[in-house]
Automatic annotation (TrEMBL):
Main location as per UniProt: membrane
Gene Ontology cellular-component annotations: membrane
Compartments (UniProt record): Membrane
A GO MF term: bile acid:sodium symporter activity
InterPro entries: BilAc:Na_symport/Acr3, Bilac:Na_transpt, Na+/solute_symporter_sf
Topology relative to the membrane: Multi-pass membrane protein
Keywords: Membrane, Symport, Transmembrane, Transmembrane helix, Transport
Annotated protein name in UniProt: Ileal sodium/bile acid cotransporter
Gene3D superfamilies (alphabetical): 1.20.1530.20
Amino acid sequence: MNTALVGPEVSEMNLQQLPVPLFGRGNVSHTESNVSVNSSAGLQESYSLRLTYDITITCTLVVIILGMGCGVTPDLIKIHFKRPTGIAIGLLSQIIILPFLSFALAHSLGFETIPAVGMLVMAVSPCGMMSSVFSYWVDGDVPLSFTISTLSTLLAFGTIPLNLLIYSGSWTDEEFVIPYRSILIVVGITITPLVLGVGIRWKFSKAASIILKIGSIAGIILVALSLILLSLLYPFMYSASWKIYVAAVSYPYISFMFGYVVSTLFRMDNFQRRTVALETGMQNYAVCFAILESSFSAEKFSVMSIFPLLYGVNVLIAGIVFVGFYQILKKYGPEPIKTHTPNEARLQREIKDTQMTEAFLEVRVTDNEGKEELCNT
């Protein structure tokens, strides 16, 4: 193992500190049976803490998705599919641009095989649902955010192996194991509360407003929990080399910037640019760790996980900076930022027009049926 690249403390770490990926098991049992530890009780305590972390984060994430779903209407989602420009640009940024950025950054920093592969797998993973919460906090297009995140996860069955085939050849010839079961679980955890939230908004609008606020608060709790627990569970990641630090700290900001630039080039509205920027930079850790764990030995996995872990901390910090910068501009900027943009107004008008048209057609059908009955009598 190259100690110059990953740091001496990381190379000598006890493998009982390995991340236990959400929805993954793979090498955990292998690690427990082959690595000498101070005591089985200590290992069990560590595993229990990680399991508690996974369960807590998952439950909180479900509450967040449910809450954000309560801010989405079926009509808004329909409009995005009728005019899929925003979806296409978001998927372009996330599926095509982001892996290339990862490839270029890893080569420019001279990464060797193991950390480079960890960075690449993080980049090819689908969007994480936390992007929808941050999009909500910056008055972004939450329906667009949900649509991009869901579609990128569904498309991950094909895009992950394709991107790995294109870019991984620079560092390794090893065959990756794509954890389709884990991706399916992520899809289920994503879509189920989202659909439930949309249904609540459709039938119980007042309750939906309350749940939406709860989801936003849960987002704050999740960010705080993630930052604290990741640091407590995996302190070895902070012993990484300066190259990994540079990549992990700069990567979220570079991704946000490219997502914003691409959406600007396609002349998307400002609130949608913010959404695409966040979608481009926030990935799904669970899928990333499941791929690494399924494909590599415990020793390689221990080093490959360092970049995703550091990235996980720094992308949340970058998201907070993004939100803070937006809120400052919104309040103190030279020109007030409109939370309701012309495009949002247009979307709302289209929804109303659609609803009025449907109501008009229903009236016409009723009138025609009434006339037929009169004629028959």
